[in-house]
Design a protein that fits this description.
By secondary structure, this protein is an alpha/beta fold. The chain has an 8-stranded parallel β-sheet with strand order 7-6-5-4-3-2-1-8. β3, α3 and β4 form a beta-alpha-beta unit. α5 crosses α7 and α10 runs parallel beside α11. The longest helix has 19 residues. The chain is globular. It starts with 5 loop residues before the first strand and ends with a helix.
Length: about 250
């Protein structure tokens, strides 16, 4: 089954409104190179509205970096799916390793956020991946199997079809280390097999992204693997030349 490649930039805690709109203006100038693939940027909450306005009329879609599971309430510092829909954003990243590492995110809360995002009609990008010590202890398969099972608990086949999954080996995020195309493909193939076990044929339509120091010089090799359907790009997405280099590789 042909799956449209998705290249999504995770800007993390970077870019003021002025910087963000400048970056989008530079990307707009190269919009023609985005044809035939899906492109998204995920800015901080404070710049979402400005970026949504700035991408109007381009193929670029916008995502948020997190969402809360409740519709509203006493959750200081959190943002609901309804609030994101109003902006409106298309995607939302859920369970990024930095959220798990620094803010206590668990597979259970990832699952709650995922269900809230789907209910609101957002397209979630659910992140899974192992730590360096887990890979060195040959625990990659066990770790991602548990993450997939618990994060996607209770999803119908239709809900899974509306979900994107990103494999991000934590040891390759911001470290300059990258999983080899073969290492990355092995985990992506495992993920698809797990989805097939749990949800059947719909697994073949789910897009699996690789996240972990993807750059223009390794993107083509990674993106040519049979089960790698795009990238969740960190630092390189803040550099127009690098981000466009990855997009063109897709």
């Amino acid at each position: 089954m042909a799956r449209t490649k998705l290249i999504a930039g995770n800007w993390k805690m970077n870019q003021t409104v002025a910087e963000a709109t400048g970056l989008i203006a530079a990307l707009r100038a190269q919009a023609a190179a985005m044809e035939g693939k899906d492109v998204a940027v995920c800015p901080p909450f404070t710049t979402l509205a400005a970026v949504v306005a700035a991408v109007a009329g381009t193929p670029i879609r916008v995502g948020a970096q997190n969402v809360h599971w409740a519709d509203s309430g006493a959750y200081t510092g959190e943002v609901s799916a309804a609030m994101l829909r109003e902006i409106p954003v298309t995607y939302v990243i859920i369970g990024h390793s930095e959220r798990r590492q620094y803010f206590g995110e668990t597979d259970k809360t990832v699952n709650q956020r995922l269900l809230a995002a789907l209910k609101a009609g957002l397209t979630p990008i659910v992140c899974v991946g192992e730590l360096l010590q887990q890979r060195e202890a040959n625990q990659t398969e066990a770790v991602v199997t548990t993450q997939i099972r618990d994060s996607l608990a209770g999803l119908s086949a239709a809900q899974l079809a509306a979900t994107v999954i990103a494999y991000e080996p934590v040891w390759a995020i911001g470290t300059g280390k990258t999983a080899s195309p073969e290492q990355a493909q092995a985990v992506h193939a495992l993920l698809r097999a797990l989805l097939r076990q749990s949800h059947g044929a719909v697994a073949d339509s789910v897009r699996l992204l690789y996240g972990g120091s993807m750059k223009p010089n390794n993107a083509a090799q990674l993106l040519s693997q049979p089960d790698i359907d795009g990238g969740l790009i960190g630092g390189a997405s803040l550099d127009v030349e690098q981000f466009m280099g990855i997009i063109k590789s897709a």
